Amino acid sequence: MKMKLFQTICRQLRSSKGFSVESAALVAFSTSSYCCGRKKNVNPYEEVDQEKYSNLVQSVLSSRGVAHTPGSVEEDALLCGPVSKHKPPKQGEDPRVPQNWFPIFNPERSDKPNASDPSVPLKIPLQRNVIPSVTRVLQQTMTKRQVFWLERWKQRMILELGEDGFKEYNSNIFLQGKRFHEALESILSPQETLKERDENLLKSGYIESVRHILKDVSGVRALESAVQHETLNYIGLLDCVAEYQGKLCVIDWKTSEKPKPFIQSTFDNPLQVVAYMGAMNHDTNYSFQVQCGLIVVAYKDGSPAHPHFMDAELCSQYWAKWLLRLEEYTEKKKNQNIQKPE
Question: What average pLDDT does the segment 112-126 reach?
């Protein structure tokens, strides 16, 4: 009877804030008769502080009105149940290593500007040819899990908007991104003169979202400029190369309807950044190299954008993953015997 009373008191104390019962104390009060007795069935939910977590439940339920994007689909699965009966493939760490290693950084180049470097940001046009682009490689080598969630999101959007509505939604998203990049180019390029259309673009929520980021951006070296990796055989069009808080970075501007405060929420964007970085560091059109990356996620409502800075070490980690995706694309292309122009 005493032991039962003691257990009840311990449970009450554990549920109180700021108090915990040390394991050593439990051992000191244990007896042989208690250890050998029949184990009591305890409901694990009895000790849950429902008042403590009520705010969390309320915030999750209140967020259901947010527009659906691929980033919100996994949360939808927990709250609303599956759209289809198919289960997503299991996600795990990729144990593979690249078979054909090539360094992301160029030891023969410096990240410091040369006196002969042009003062005007480089803007090399992208030449469309049979060489695959970074975007194409990433799209063709998405994991089964990525394909599952993307298709699931598409199904949900079509159910809500219809086929035509979904096409219009995608067109609007593309147009918003294009205008956002045009406005940034007007801001960052010293040669650009503001037109009436540009002035309207500068009033958008996306620009308001990145204003605090732009204050730390200086020394622009390239804008909407093409890169090509002749050894690894791929091309790309990077958004910007500039200094962010004093460090030269490949900057990738993104828009999102859903907050993405963590770099893990940006999906393959880090791979895209390091792919551009590795190509630029070995492209003869550029006399300098970059060792850092920056992903900036802007929001339409003007809320502060999330900057995701990638130092040299993190870039090297993502570079290894990019090499694996590039090898996978090359192997897939050989097996399927396809080679279509971009």
Answer: 78
The residue to which tokens 């790309």 are assigned: 236
Would you name the residues annotated as active-site residues?
A: 239, 252, 254
Contacts of 105 (CB under 8 A, 6+ apart): 281, 289, 291, 312
Strands 234-244, 292-299: parallel, antiparallel or unpaired by DSSP?
Answer: unpaired
18 Cβ partners below 8 Å, 6+ apart? Answer: none
CATH value at residue 155:
3.90.320
CB-based contact 176:268 (threshold 8 Å): no
* Backbone phi, psi, residue 96, to 5°: -75, 160
Unique residue bearing structure tokens 């311990």: 10
Residues of the domain holding 300: 118-335
Secondary structure (3-state) at 313: helix
Are the beta carbons of 291 and 315 closer than 8 angstroms?
yes
Q: Is 220 contained in some domain?
A: yes
Amino acid at 252: D
pLDDT tens digit string along 181-234? 999 998 998 765 555 445 666 678 999 999 999 999 999 999 999 999 999 999
pLDDT at 297: 97
Model confidence over 269-310: pLDDT tens digits?
999 999 999 999 999 999 999 999 999 999 999 999 999 999
Instruction: Provide the number of structural domains found in the chain.
Output: 1
Would 36 be classed as within a structural domain?
no
The Cβ of residue 194 has, within 10 Å, a number of other Cβ atoms equal to 12
In a domain, 330, yes or no: yes
Strand order in the sheet with 292-299: 217-229, 234-244, 247-256, 292-299, 306-310
